[in-house]
Amino acid sequence: MPKQTDDSGSAGLAGRRGRAARNDAAILDAAREVFLADPKAPVAAVAERAGVGMSALYRRYPGKEDLLRRLCHDGLRRWIEEAEAVEAEPDAWKALVVFLERIVDADVHSLTVHLAGTFTPTEEMGRDARRAAELMGRLVERAYAAGLLRRDLVVDDIGLVLEGCAAVRVPDAERTRELRRRFLAMVLAGVAGAGVAGAGVTGTGADALPGPAPEPGELNWRWRRPGQSGRV
Amino acid sequence: MPKQTDDSGSAGLAGRRGRAARNDAAILDAAREVFLADPKAPVAAVAERAGVGMSALYRRYPGKEDLLRRLCHDGLRRWIEEAEAVEAEPDAWKALVVFLERIVDADVHSLTVHLAGTFTPTEEMGRDARRAAELMGRLVERAYAAGLLRRDLVVDDIGLVLEGCAAVRVPDAERTRELRRRFLAMVLAGVAGAGVAGAGVTGTGADALPGPAPEPGELNWRWRRPGQSGRV
DNA sequence: TAGCAGTGGAACAGAGCATTCCGTTCTGCT
DNA sequence: AGCAGAACGGAATGCTCTGTTCCACTGCTA
C-alpha cells in the first residue's frame, strides 16, 4: 500500500486506524451531547448517537463511569484553558465577560458541575479544580479591584450566574446558546458596577440584550406532547 | 406497629379520620420535597419521607403519575393565586418583584416546569396554564408600560429569570432559598429600567444584594463525597 | 495469506421500581 | 359489647431498563 503506516497526527487517516481515530472523536462528541442533555442517559444512547456499537465504546473505556470522568475532566481543562486565554486581555471587565461567554457557549459548566456525582473524582481532577477556582478568582478579583464589579459581590456569585445560564435550555442546541447569551447579558447588566459603560443607562443601544427574544411559548417545550409545537 | 396516639390538640381531628387527614398533608408535603429534589425519584421515597406505608399512598392516588399531576396542578394554582394577590399593589415594580420572590420562595417554577413531561396534562391544567400566562403577562406589561422594565425585554425573558433561580440549589432547603433571593436580586438589578430607584447606582445600600454571600466551595456540593464538607 | 485489532449487536445478569396483596389494627356505629 | 370495614405497613411480584460481556465477523497490516 502506498499509504505509510505511521503515527502521524493528521486528521483524515484511512483504513482501520483512521476509523478508530475517527471513532475516538465521535464517541466523545456523542457522549458530550447525550450526557449534557441527560446525565443519567444510558451508555447505549451514546453508542447509537456516535453511530458505533457497544464494543467500540467499551474498548476505549472500562466502564460508564470512566467515560463520564473523562468528559468532566475535559471540561475542567477547557475551563482552565479559557481562563488562561483571557488573562492577556488588559480590560478586566472584557476579560471576565469574554470568559463567561466562552464557558457558557461551550456548556462547560454543565460538563463540570452537573456531571459531578456520577463518578468518583481522581486526585488530578481535584488539583485541576483548585487551579480553575484560582484562575477564576484572579479574574474576578481583577474586575473587582478595578471597580468594575459591584462591591457586595463574591466570587462564588459568578458561580450562581453560570448555574443560571446552564439552566436555560430548549430542545435546539443553537437556540439554547442564543438564549443563554441573552440571559447572561441580562445578568451582567445587573452585576456591573458604575464604571462599566452603559451601566445605569440600561435599555440603550450600548448594552442591548443580544439575540432574538424568546418567543411566546418557546420556553414551554416540556409541556408539549411529541410533535406538538407553539404555545401551550 | 407504633401506637397511634391521638394528639387532637394541635391540628385537626383525632382518631382514624384525623390520622387520615394528617396523612393527606404529610404525603403531599413529602411528595413536594422529594420530587422537587429529583423528579424521577421512586414513589417509595415519598412514602418513607412522609412516614407512611405504600398503601396509604396508593389509597389516595391511583398511580405515581396522578400524584405528580396533582403536585404540578397545585403549583399552577399557587402561581395564579400569587399573581392575583399582587394585582392590588399599586406600585408596578414592587408588584412584579414581590410576585417573583414568592414564586421563587415557594419553588413554584420547578413544580410547574420541571415536573412537566412526567405526566399527561389534563384539560383543566391547560386552561390554568393559559390563565397563569395571561396574569403574568399583565404584570409584566404594567411594569413595562410604566417604564420600569428595560424596553428590549420580553415577557418570556422573565421565564428565563425564573428558570435561572430554580437552578440555584444546595442541599439545604433554607439556604437554597437565601441564595435564590440573592441571585434574583442580582438579575433584577440587570432588568430594571432607569425609573427604578437604585438602578444605575448599583452597589449602594438601596439595592444591596440580600442574604449571606455564597461561601467558598459552598456551590461545589456535588463534588463532595458523602460526609465530606467544605471546599473542593 | 495469516493474524488480530477493531467492531456490531445480541445476550445476560442484576438492579430498581411501580404496583399489588395480605394480614393487622382499631375506629365508629349498631 | 361486638362487628364491619376503613386505613394501614410493608413484603412480594413482575416488569423494565441498563451496564457489561461475549462472540462471530471484517478487512487492514505485516
TrEMBL record, chains A, B:
<dbReference type="InterPro" id="IPR036271">
    <property type="entry name" value="Tet_transcr_reg_TetR-rel_C_sf"/>
</dbReference>
<keyword id="KW-0804">Transcription</keyword>
<feature type="DNA-binding region" description="H-T-H motif">
    <location>
        <begin position="42"/>
        <end position="61"/>
    </location>
</feature>
<dbReference type="InterPro" id="IPR050109">
    <property type="entry name" value="HTH-type_TetR-like_transc_reg"/>
</dbReference>
<dbReference type="InterPro" id="IPR009057">
    <property type="entry name" value="Homeodomain-like_sf"/>
</dbReference>
<keyword id="KW-0238">DNA-binding</keyword>
<dbReference type="Pfam" id="PF00440">
    <property type="entry name" value="TetR_N"/>
</dbReference>
<feature type="domain" description="HTH tetR-type">
    <location>
        <begin position="21"/>
        <end position="79"/>
    </location>
</feature>
<dbReference type="GO" id="GO:0000976">
    <property type="term" value="F:transcription cis-regulatory region binding"/>
</dbReference>
<protein>
    <submittedName>
        <fullName>Transcriptional regulator, TetR family</fullName>
    </submittedName>
</protein>
<feature type="region of interest" description="Disordered">
    <location>
        <begin position="205"/>
        <end position="232"/>
    </location>
</feature>
<dbReference type="InterPro" id="IPR001647">
    <property type="entry name" value="HTH_TetR"/>
</dbReference>
<keyword id="KW-0805">Transcription regulation</keyword>
<dbReference type="Pfam" id="PF21597">
    <property type="entry name" value="TetR_C_43"/>
</dbReference>
<keyword id="KW-1133">Transmembrane helix</keyword>
<dbReference type="GO" id="GO:0003700">
    <property type="term" value="F:DNA-binding transcription factor activity"/>
</dbReference>
<dbReference type="InterPro" id="IPR049445">
    <property type="entry name" value="TetR_SbtR-like_C"/>
</dbReference>
<keyword id="KW-0472">Membrane</keyword>
<keyword id="KW-0812">Transmembrane</keyword>
<feature type="transmembrane region" description="Helical">
    <location>
        <begin position="183"/>
        <end position="202"/>
    </location>
</feature>
